[in-house]
Sequence to fold (184 residues):
Amino acid sequence: LEMNHITKTFGSLKALDDVNLKIKAGEIHALVGENGAGKSTLMNILSGVYPHGSYTGEILFKEKECRFKDIRDSEKLGIVIIHQELALIPYLSIAENIFLGNERAKGTVGLTEDPTTLISNLGVGKQQLIEISKALSKDVKLLILDEPTAALNDEDSDKLLNLILELKEKGVTSILISHKLNEV
Fold:
């Protein structure tokens, strides 16, 4: 992945000013900085949340220029973002959440719960694993995790971080947005 000369403004506020980022395949890369530093904004550009044309600069993925119109565009190439605010539907089951809009899901992330379990009956740690299951079902190549352990206890944080290491062994590149240096 290469992001070159990325600049993003919101009105008169310059959120990103000529940012460059280069990440090798199979790497776990951390973005660390204070709140408001632009970490999430940069990843929202990469994932298509902020579409091409709403920023200046270029994105290259696997040496090809990308001009994403939305998240679906980036997901087609295997770039998947998991936001800090989880996007699960509490009154649907685990299986329904994973398959919703993504009917070719496969594989698990160590969840032992019955797939018919409602999301509302799970803790945040398990919900985070379900978000990762959704990403894996999309044949993820580059996984972006925005403050994934912010609401997790130490045990669930350790499980999640170990899962990222396991994904690296399978060739998945990850970008971890965090301000917890011990995790990095």
Notes: Residues 149 and 177 are 10 Å apart (CA to CA). The two ends are 20 Å apart (CA to CA). Confidence is low (pLDDT under 50) at residues 103-107. DSSP finds five helices and eight strands in the chain.
